[in-house]
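Backbone-to-sequence.
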């Protein structure tokens, strides 16, 4: 059943190693993609700005050369155009103007200049391919924008400039173009280099991730095994030492938890052993006296008194045990409110008036005139005071004194008796659970007092005054409640 539950919990989970590897690789890929994108944007901007500047310079130079009408070299066609028209063939540059070259096309994208019979034109097929590509893409002849085209496996940037119309309404266009193949190839090679670097970085990242995740996963597995052992009841502390601060802190915390759980388990075993022992004695006494009454071998009145006494003892012990089980459930969300400690002490003493009269013990009070307020659980704190006063009545010779004062930032409560005091042997163990000193009943009462006081953020100490015993409790004072 546990294996099935564990498999359900682990279903859909991924290991730390995989998570780190995915995150690192994703980061590397993202970084390189951003670098490649930025590089290509910058290269594109650089190319466009340079191409625009050079094409504009070429257009300007060509405009300065237009000083007479253009005439067909064959003489078969004549276009009388104004002086701002295209220059004649003799005035056209026979090579790149700056870094740009020039061709002339008509409105049907047909090549007008240069012609196939011009011996100085070595790249005629390339020029024809450019004009055909313009026709294929139906390039806008009037936009004046830079156009990118590919022809004969080469990359070009060009701009088209229209000339004046002639009488036959035919029109010719100057095409200024630049070969960007080498620069585009350079950009492609850079992109390839970046991709290779990204791949190498990814491989290195995977190797480093495997090593790093191994160093992280190993101690996590060890601590997981440690936690499983604790859950199975093995509280042996681990002896692993980790260099990483967080793992060292976690290991130390788990060792402390294991030690506390071991102490708690040992305390629980001792607790149940003591409880069984303490319950067995009065139960056996009740049984023996009941059998004596049944068989008529014991005086009925005497046996009845013993049964009643032991029953009262059992009832008190059960009440104490129930109180112990509830003490650790005290919560600020429970019945906590401001109370006057003088009233709680007075109420606790009032409950024990009959016991005090029976033992001929006088109870005196030494209280502040002003209220001594504390934020507390009234029920549990009253129970603690009742146990403490009852203990004082049991050991006092003639009187006990209840003290309640506020001193600066703390509240002091004391129960002082005039008995024989506390022996040095009993003093270190007087608040231990089930420890019974001289005249002790069940060894639970004072341990309850200590637990309740600590739950209220207070401290308690016992002392032998050589004229009796004193129990002094100190609580933190409520803010703004100090005496003046």
């Amino acid at each position: 059943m546990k294996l099935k539950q564990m498999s359900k919990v682990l279903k859909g989970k991924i290991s730390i190693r995989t998570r780190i590897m995915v995150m690192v690789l994703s980061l590397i890929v993202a970084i390189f993609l951003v670098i490649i994108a930025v590089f290509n944007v910058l290269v594109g901007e650089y190319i466009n700005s340079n191409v625009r500047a050079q094409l504009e310079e070429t257009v300007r130079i060509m405009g300065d050369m237009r000083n007479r009408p253009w005439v067909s070299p064959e003489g078969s066609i004549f276009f009388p155009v104004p002086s701002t028209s295209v220059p004649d063939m003799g005035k056209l540059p026979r090579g790149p103007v700056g870094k740009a070259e020039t061709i002339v096309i008509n409105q049907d994208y047909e090549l007008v200049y240069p012609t196939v019979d011009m011996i100085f034109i070595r790249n005629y097929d390339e020029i024809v391919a450019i004009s055909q590509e313009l026709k294929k893409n139906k390039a806008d002849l009037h936009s004046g924008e830079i156009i990118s085209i590919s022809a004969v496996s080469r990359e070009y940037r060009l701009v088209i400039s229209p000339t004046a119309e002639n009488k036959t309404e035919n029109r010719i266009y100057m095409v200024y173009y630049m070969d960007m193949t080498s620069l585009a190839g350079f950009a492609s090679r850079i992109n390839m280099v970046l991709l290779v670097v990204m791949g190498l970085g990814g491989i290195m990242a995977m190797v480093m991730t495997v090593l790093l995740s191994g160093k992280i996963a190993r101690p996590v597995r060890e601590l997981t095994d440690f936690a499983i052992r604790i859950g199975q009841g093995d509280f042996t502390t681990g002896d692993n030492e980790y260099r990483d601060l967080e793992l060292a802190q976690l290991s130390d915390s788990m060792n402390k938890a294991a030690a506390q759980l071991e102490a708690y388990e040992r305390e629980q075993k001792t607790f149940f052993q003591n409880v069984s022992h303490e319950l067995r004695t009065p139960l056996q006494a009740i049984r023996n006296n009941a059998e004596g009454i049944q068989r008529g071998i014991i005086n009925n009145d005497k046996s009845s008194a013993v049964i009643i006494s032991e029953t009262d003892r059992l009832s008190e012990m059960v009440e104490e045990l129930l109180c112990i089980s509830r003490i650790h459930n005290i919560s600020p969300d429970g019945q906590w409110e401001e109370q006057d400690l003088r009233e709680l002490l007075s109420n606790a003493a009032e409950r024990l008036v009959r016991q005090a009269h029976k033992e001929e013990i006088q109870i005196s009070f030494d209280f502040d005139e002003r209220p001594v307020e504390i934020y507390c659980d009234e029920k549990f704190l009253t129970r603690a005071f009742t146990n403490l006063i009852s203990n004082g009545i049991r050991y006092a010779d003639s009187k006990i004194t209840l003290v309640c004062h506020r001193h600066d930032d703390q509240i002091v409560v004391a129960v002082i008796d005039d008995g024989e005091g506390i022996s040095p042997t009993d003093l270190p163990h007087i608040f231990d659970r089930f420890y019974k000193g001289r005249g002790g009943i069940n060894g639970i009462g004072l341990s309850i007092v200590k637990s309740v006081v600590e739950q209220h953020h207070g401290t308690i100490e016992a002392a032998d005054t050589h004229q009796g015993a004193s129990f002094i409790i100190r609580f933190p004072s409520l803010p703004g409640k100090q005496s003046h």
